[in-house]
Amino acid sequence: MGNNILEMKNINKYFTGVHALKDVDFSLLEGEIHALVGENGAGKSTLMKVLVGIYPKDTGMIHYLGHLFNPLNPQYALEAGIGIIHQELNMMDHLTVAQNIFINREPVRGAGLFLDKREQYRMTEELFKRLNMNIDPSELVGNLSVGKQQMVEIAKAVSHRLRVLILDEPTAALTDIEISELFTIMRDLAGRGVGMIHISHRLEEIHQITDRVTVLRDGERVGTKKTSETTRQDIINMMVGRVIYEQPKARSMVPPDSPVVLRVDKLNAGKLVRDVSFELRKGEILGFSGLIGAGRTETARAIFGADEIQSGTIEINGVPARINSPQDAVQNGIGYLSEDRKRYGLAVNLNVKDNSVMASYDQFPKGIFVDSGKISRVTGEYVDMLNIKTPSLDQLLFNLSGGNQQKVVIAKWLIKNSDILIFDEPTRGIDVGAKSEIYTLMNELAREGKSIIMISSELPEVLRMSDRIIVMCEGRITGEFNIEEATQEAIMERATIGRQAALAGS
Question: Which CATH architecture best describes the domain 259-333+419-425+451-506?
Fold first, then answer.
């Protein structure tokens, strides 16, 4: 490894009401593979988006190749030699490999009037030979495996005389063989002097492939260490070493003889729900923890009928349930508060009253019409009960705060009298005061006998609210804790347990 090719100093980034990056320092050496790790929301992706010009930094400095660097946009950064491979690949499936690599840079002939396909293929073959990649330049990208598509993305970036390559969760969708091939390419690039930033939650990979590791937590840099001088447990401790200011729940509030209201057995749906089995009891708050890509939301969507179930069974109150659509789930007493409430939970251009009863108009008949007076009366009762701050029931949803919007979604499912409530990131994007109100409300619902699945990326929230905690990694359940035995470190250890241990079901 050589000298610094990149140094970010005192980087700050603000979004509305959020200090996302707080005086973050980060450096990269020539030929180094540098891991960047942290929990969901720690600031990893935000820092990299600042580096490639997706977000402008608010304060701080970036030095690249010894000079001040101010990336205007990702294309500007790429032309300067900084490329990023996102977890969601940005390929055009209907074009060939060669066309994808040299799009907008095609070689031409005949005074620039014609595309020189032969030269394009020759340049691609030469690039692949240099990178030891065995891919046909004439193959359609849509016919390639995810691993091969990722290699094409890397080749495309390298063709820009790359000096820095950012890989965001590059192994998440790869087979073990493809991971081995990727690591071979990464080591080869490092040998050629390319510095790489490897964002990953797979801690076993970090010790396989990286030279240094930097940990971010809550938008701040916790520290940077040589990978060879740190252990997996060291990294976990750095990731979760915050003080929990809210007191964790001391013990479960659910009686041991409380009946099972939902039983899921060997559920499979898509790539991120694999043999998932668990039980939910009456009056229980069951927390689901895990990192991005763990499969928590996908599990919830499958149970709610939003995504197709490929195999497995669901029982509600001991009776097998066929849930092929959200309508089936609602009829079985399940309500789902999506993590993206504005997209899936609300109609922000409608008012409080219409949003509150949109799932339950059939409960308000008046001949062939609906009983608008009863709708107003019932909605008003829930607005008062949930302390929804709105000047009237006719207020449009987009005029309410995030916390009050979330309460309207809760009102919708309570009016429908759902006994099983799935809260997916229930406090995302709302302020501290509104969070506390949501917590109080969830506890009251549980005491009244409602059963809640709570998906959260915030470990303090999971520990504060849950009676029991399920941990997922790469589509599988990798741990289960009673609240009395759960710790941040234990949860994170299971959330980063890795592919082989997850497959073994340990």
Answer: 3-Layer(aba) Sandwich (3.40)
